[in-house]
Amino acid sequence: MAGAKSVSVLLLCMVLSAAMFNVEALTCGTVATDLLQCLGYLKNGGSVSAACCKGVEALNNAAKTTQDRRDACTCLKTTAAQLGGVNANYAAALPGLCRVNIPYKISTSTNCASIK
Which domain CATH number covers 70? Predict the structure, then answer.
């Protein structure tokens, strides 16, 4: 239970801090909010909820520019490391399960700066 509270507080902080950034830019708060419903799957596997896939689709649609995609990649890597327990194989499979084409591999080894 304490872990869930910590995750909620972390995500809330990211969402609230998003207001400090340029609204036009894709923020880490946006990324976290879009993928919040995926957290159970990313840690435990199983089935992917419709809400999770809607978040994946929303994130993909929001990442319109190269910089947006790089920022989203960096945020995903940072947040996964902070949360701990995110299964890399589940994360890599998520776009395909949601039928969303992500133009780069979801992995901790992805070089976010090389994303076009």
Answer: 1.10.110.10
